[in-house]
Known about the structure:
The chain contains eleven helices and no strands. The protein is an all-alpha fold. Helix 2 packs across helix 6 and helix 10 (about 240-245) packs across helix 11 (about 260-285). The termini are far apart. The relative contact order is 0.11. Keywords: Membrane, Transmembrane, Transmembrane helix. This is ABC-2 type transport system permease protein.
Amino acid sequence: MTTPTRPPGPAAPSTDRAPGPARALSDLAAATSAEWVKLRSVRSTWWGLATALLLMAVVAPGAAVSVISNMQNGLVPSADVPASEMAVYATMWVVQFAVIAVALPAVTSEYSSRSIHSTLQAVPARVRMLTAKVLSLAATVFVATVVMGTVGTLLAHLVMLHPVFEGYGTLHPKDAAVDVVRMAVYLTAVSVLTVGVGTTLRSAAAALTTVFMLILGLPVMLLLMGSEMGVHLAGRLPFFAGISFVDSAFVIGSFDDALSPPTGGTVLVCWALASLAVGALVLRRRDA
C-alpha cells in the first residue's frame, strides 16, 4: 500500500539569511556595551586617563610661560594663536602617549591573557567585535580629552592673567572650544590608530614600537635627513598631519608644502582607518 504524499507547501524560511539592519545595529550596540564594561572595569584605563589629565594640568601652565617667553623674544609670532592655546597644543604631544597607553591594552592584553577566545565566542563576527572595541574606546577618549583640553586651556589662561604676561592672555571662548575639539579628535584618531596596530601585531611591545615610530620616530628621522622628499613625507605622517589639523601655524613657515587644516584632518583619518582596515583583515584571516 502506498502512502499518499502531501502536496508541497511553501518553503520554510531560511535561517542562514544575514540579519537585517535593525538586528545588525542591535548586535553592534550590545557588543559595544560589553566592550565598554570591559574597558571601564580595567584599572589601567583609569590610571592612563588620570595620568593624561595630570600631565595636561601640570604641563600646560608651564608651557604657557615658555610660549610667552618665546613670544617676547620674537621666536614665535604673537598674533597668530593665543599663548594659552599654544600651550595646550604643546602639552597635547605629551598627553598622546598616555592615551596610547590606554588604547593599546584594549587589544593586546586580550591576546596575552588568551581572553580573546571568550571574546570571540561571545561575538563570533570578528569585524563587529573590532568595531565595538573602537566605538567604546573612541567615545571614551574623545570625552576624556575634551575635559583635559578644557582644563589645560583654563589653567594656562589663569597663569597668563598675571600682570607680567599682560597682552598675551586673551582667551576667545568660541575659538578655544573649537581648538579643544580638534585636539580631542586628534587624540581619538591616535587611539584608533593604536587599536589597528595592536590588532595587527597582537604584541604590546611590537605595537608600541610601531606606533611610537609612526607618531614620532619616523617623522624626526625624515626631518633630520634634510631632503625635500623627507620633509614632504614627514608632513604626511600622522604626527605632522595632526599638527596641521589642530593648528597649521605650527608648520606653516617651516614647511613650504604644509597641509591645510582640512587636508591634515583627512590625512590623519586616513591613517587611522587604514590601520583599522589592516587590523580587521588580519583578525579575519588569522586564528586567535
